[in-house]
Amino acid sequence: MSNIVEQRVRRPILRLVNVQKTYRQGDRELHILDGASADLHEGEAVALVAPSGSGKTTLLQVAGLLDRADSGSVVLSGRDCAALGDRDRTRIRRTDIGFVYQFHHLLPEFDALENVVLPQLIAGTKRSEAMQRGTDLLAAFGLKERLTHRPAELSGGEQQRVAIARAVANAPMVLLADEPTGNLDPQTAERVFVQLLQFVRKAGLAALIATHNYDLAHRMDRVIRLENGKLIEQQFTQIKTQTA
Known about the structure:
Elements: H1 2-9, E1 14-25, E2 28-40, E3 44-49, H2 56-63, E4 71-76, E5 79-80, H3 86-96, E6 97-100, H4 112-122, H5 127-140, H6 156-167, E7 174-178, H7 186-203, E8 206-210, H8 214-218, E9 222-227, E10 230-233, H9 236-243
Parallel strand pairs: 3-8, 3-9, 6-7, 7-8
Antiparallel strand pairs: 1-2, 1-4, 4-5, 9-10
Helix pairs in contact: 4-5, 4-6, 6-7
């Protein structure tokens, strides 16, 4: 009961409030997000599930300030970011929001450590501090012996763990992940998922993780489903029934 009360009174780190997003396709209007609302709190991993093509990526892009909603609010740590200019949105993405994608998108000409150091340097961190944090992060993800290996020399799971370390290098408040284990075999996906979840809870991030893997979704703190442009909180048993 105390945990429920605590969640009710504490302020969310990320709030999506009545977010609307429509695309035009010829004469048709596609209402991708139609009043989508959700709260994410510190240290919790929230699974985002939905059929392919339903708008999960659009939702993550709007939440991460990569795309603008037609209306509604994206509130980060109490600040409504919807009306901010491009410069402020870029600054917030650089420091307060981390992104992980299905494909790692590592820079192939740089080694693992350099891939994690670069976003820190761009954010203004001193090189010595960036090197130390990068080393610590990669060690935390089990890559202490792979610091100087380039992406082509790493396995798929190792590459994705480097990508996660890069996403959290600037100590963001929010982590947005789009199918982060979707391109991995089951055993590797399990290892990457466990390490990601442990890090989210230890670092106190608010994480929204899109996944098609309902077993992984069940192990997160909450599950929300994107349906007809709205976000609906669901129990795992409901999800299994709807996807059977």
